[in-house]
Design goal:
Elements lengths: L6 H8 L3 H8 L7 H14 L5 H6 L18 E5 L2 H4 L12 H7 L16 H15 L3 E5 L2 H4 L9 H16 L3 E5 L7 H7 L6 H17 L5 E6 L1 H9 L11 H26 L4 E7 L3 E3 L4 H24 L4 H8 L8 H5 L5 E5 L4 E5 L10 E3 L18 H14 L4 E5 L18 H19 L4 E7 L18 E3 L6 E3 L1 H13 L2
Parallel strand pairs: 1-2, 1-11, 2-3, 3-4, 4-5, 5-7, 6-8, 7-10, 10-11
Antiparallel strand pairs: 8-9, 12-13
Helix pairs in contact: 1-2, 1-3, 7-9, 11-13, 12-13, 17-18, 18-19
Amino acid sequence: MAERVTIRDIARLAGVSTATVSRALNQRPDVDAATRARILSVIAEVGYTPASAAVILSAGARRHHAPLPPFPHQFLWGVATSAFQIEGALQEDGRGPSIWDQYVAYPPPDFTAHTAAVACDHYRRMPEDVALLAQLGVNAYRFSVAWSRIMPDGEGAVNAKGLDFYDRLVDALLAAGITPQATLYHWDLPLGLQARYGGWLHRHTAYAFADFAEQVARRLGDRVTYWMTLNEPWSVTVQSYVLGRHPPFQQDNAQALQVAHHLLLAHGLAAPRLRRESGPTAKIGIALNLTPVYPADPRPATQQAVQQADLWYNRWFLDPLFAGKYPDETQRQLASLAVVEAQDMECIATPLDFLGVNYYSRLVVQPGDEMAGPLTGYTQVAPVPEASYSQMGWETFAMGLYDMLMRVYHEYHPPAILVTENGVAFSDPDMRTGQPIRDSRRIAYLQDHIAAMQSAYQAGAPIQGYSAWTLFDNFEWTDGYSRRFGLIAVDRATQRRAIKESGRWYAHFIATQRE
């Protein structure tokens, strides 16, 4: 058997120290791009792979970063939210019900009853919240527009009062020097569309979404330049139609394939209407949650499992958006469903101005059962030995952000990339008057992930912005208020806001970027 190549061999061939090779492999930002490229070229040439156990066991290690050079002054530093999670006011000013209204009104037995009727009361406290954004020093704010606040029944009549709210929000943001970034669908499908057509199971919903997008852009397009059609269509598809954890609680692979296609079609139909209503400066994109997949061991069968997991976690949505076609296995399964119509794929692949990347964690896999539909063909390894996990049970793995950004850059070539969500839930201390909310683990998380993003930026990825998830501790879907992602805590009884230490760190970091 051939002798195993070591880091010492890589260092000798690349003309650097072993420490430099180690820093390059660990995505340290203090290795210049040319040296990193030379090391990676040698690694590819000799076929070196780190021992899989070492890769996994080191996953949770906290890295100490050298000071980062500042990003460009025009870089967009922001935070992200979604309408249903923060707005409240579910029955005010003509808003119609969404599928999530029905969920919290009639929750399943295993759900600890929480209501989003008030949430963070953002609908009433919007001016106060914009002032908090200004206090954080962000120059971008990603929010979502509640579809049923604009079209209470999902189609047809437009509710002017709903548009008025977002009109005031956009004006307040611009007055504070903050760039509005509008997401048009963040999971809150109008209940009327679900009742009449089965929601995303029917392509009519895609056309209704395009009508809704046009109405919003007609009102706000003179001031909003950044538009995201959909947030995490993978999550909508998988959580609602594969795992059955979100409304409408289905576990049907054929339905999941239909829903995914109709979501992508909705994006393709809406994009040209947004461009038309917003004018030539509009930047149109979509926010995908992307998950890098790693092998648990070097066996060929495990490499095959990686490819199968990657197909369903990433390529399922990336390929049609950028290549105008589904992966072969996805296309094979779609063929029997008669879902894809002529011109659909051309519509879906309408050119994007940017890709939004939501990143939270990675996937480590081993071989599993044969591929039989979404999320099959592999077995997830969890927990990963020695790894660090969040309150959500997600491994914190900053290197995955670097790997995903570089993979998207090299394989799909988007003209620009925005990191549209990145954050973590921990069991933060409760609010106490006059006492700081110390969340040092969240600060470490942000430091590590921003450093990973900086490494990707230095390596050439066209990254133009970063939004932390999220502004407030909010209504976290099926977890109610038990999971805290926010940079700002909210007292549920009084709605008092308090900036956590992580929020203060983020504000300071942004300020240093502008010095």
